[in-house]
Each structure stands twice: as C-alpha cells, then as structure tokens.
C-alpha cells in the first residue's frame, strides 16, 4: 500500500485525536464526581435510616416523660385531697388511713420525680444525638448536590469537547486516502493503529526494533506503508526515525 509521507503524518494526527476522543468520551460517561456521588447516595440512605431511628427514640422518651409528669400531677392532686380530708376528719381510724396513703403517695412522687429527672437527661441526650444526625445528613446532602452540579458541568464540558474533536476528526479523515484510513481503522481496533518511528523505537508499542528490521524499513520507499513487526501498527517515518 502506498501513501505520501504527508498523508502518513495525517494518520498520526488522527491517532492523537482518537486518544483525545477516548478520554473525552470516558469523561462524559464517567465524570470524576460519579464515584463519590454514588458513595454519598448510599451514605445518605444509611443516615436517613439512622435519623428515623433517633427521631423515634427521642419521641419515645418524650412520651414516657409526659406520662411520668402526668402521674406526678395525679399523685400530687390525690395527696393534696388526702391532706384536705385529714384536716377535717375527726375519726382516728380514717386519719391513720389518710396518713398512710399520704406517706405512700409521697414515696411514689419521690420515685416518679427521680424517673422524671432521668428522662429529662435522656431527652437532652436524644435531642443532641438527633441534631447531630440531622447535621450529618445535611452535610452529606450538600456535598452530594455540589458534586452532582460539578459532575453535570463536567459532562457538559466533555460533551462539548467530544463534539469539537469529532468535527476535527471528520476534517482529517476526509484528507486521508481511503485505503490508508481503512488500514488504520482496522489496526486501531487492537493496537494504537499508528505510531511515529523515533530513533528506532515504535511509538505505538514503544518497542525498539532490531537492526535487521530497521535496515529493511530503511530500504522501503518513503511512500510505501510500513507496519511495526511487533504490534502491526502503521509506522510513520521522519528524519528522526534513526534509519
């Protein structure tokens, strides 16, 4: 196959464009923020479940505290009624019964008040834990929103680059002879496609060619297509090829 040296150099431009296109396509399909956003989604779900649990725990403490406070009010009201009755009764047996009940209510109130203090402390801890969990969830949400926005911008930028590179590629491929382009595209499916032969080294596979291979290439006409004996890519020769 024959192609002018200038056409062969165009293939190197095509290689550079194809590599840039691969990077741009990868950036469009897999923006750098995507992995972290995926982690944050899982973390946010976990934090959301923890928030529900902590909210339920706080609510349970509130309900228990309200019940204890109600029991204290009932016991105090009954204790006051007994005291009022004690002040008006003239029957010794009734007085002793009232005094016993007043003492029993005092013990119950003391026990309930102790429990009330415990629950108030539990409520403070539960509310602090809930607030901390809410803060963590908000931080995760904010980071996720920020990275999602950055990822969207990155995808849009990569898409613009893909469009620009595709346009440049179309211009270059239009200048390359069809046979040479077909040969390059066939080889590019499994190797670099083409590479510059620089000081005896293939730019496609970075292998240094043997003296015999280089001697054979040196005897080949400039407009004859040469392939790397190691990777089969098109070897583009210049004055710095070491021939």
**Helix/strand/pairing category:** mainly alpha
Write down the CATH topology of the largest domain.
Helix Hairpins
List segments where confidence is low: pLDDT < 50 over at least 5 consecutive residues: none
Q: Tell me about the biggest sheet?
A: 4 strands, mixed
Helix content: over 70%
CATH architecture type of the largest domain = Orthogonal Bundle
User: What's the number of domains?
Assistant: 2
Using the alpha-carbon principal axes, give the shape: rod-shaped
Q: Could you state the order of secondary-structure elements as H and E?
A: HHHHEEHEE
| Record field, number of beta strands | 4
What is the residue-averaged pLDDT? 95
Instruction: Give the strand order, joined by hyphens, for the main sheet.
Output: 2-1-4-3
Which value, in Å, is the CA radius of gyration?
42 Å
Number of helices: 5
**Fraction of residues in β-strands:** 5-15%
Give the arrangement of secondary structure elements:
Elements: H1 5-29, H2 34-88, H3 92-175, H4 178-188, E1 194-198, E2 201-202, H5 211-218, E3 226-227, E4 234-237
Parallel strand pairs: 1-4
Antiparallel strand pairs: 1-2, 3-4
Helix pairs in contact: 1-3, 2-3
């Amino acid at each position: 196959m024959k192609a002018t040296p200038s056409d062969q150099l165009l293939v190197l431009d095509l290689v550079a464009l194809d590599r840039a296109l691969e990077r741009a396509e990868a950036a469009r399909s897999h923006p750098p923020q995507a992995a972290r956003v995926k982690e944050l989604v899982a973390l946010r779900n976990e934090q959301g479940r923890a928030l529900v649990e902590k909210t339920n725990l706080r609510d349970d403490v509130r309900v228990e505290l309200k019940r204890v406070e109600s029991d204290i009010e009932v016991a105090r009201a009954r204790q006051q009624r007994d005291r009022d009755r004690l002040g008006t009764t003239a029957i010794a047996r009734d007085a002793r019964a009232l005094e016993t009940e007043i003492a029993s209510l005092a013990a119950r109130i003391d026990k309930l008040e102790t429990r009330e203090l415990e629950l108030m402390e539990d409520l403070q801890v539960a509310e602090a834990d809930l607030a901390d969990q809410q803060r963590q969830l908000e931080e995760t949400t904010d980071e996720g929103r920020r990275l999602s926005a950055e990822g969207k911008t990155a995808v849009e930028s990569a898409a613009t680059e893909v469009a620009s590179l595709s346009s440049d590629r179309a211009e270059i491929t239009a200048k390359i002879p069809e046979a040479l382009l077909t040969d390059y595209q066939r080889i590019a499916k499994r190797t670099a496609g083409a590479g510059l032969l620089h000081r005896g080294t293939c730019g496609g596979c970075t292998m240094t060619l043997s003296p015999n291979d280089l001697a054979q290439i040196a005897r080949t006409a400039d407009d004859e297509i040469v392939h790397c004996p190691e990777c089969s890519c098109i070897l583009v020769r210049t004055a710095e090829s070491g021939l």
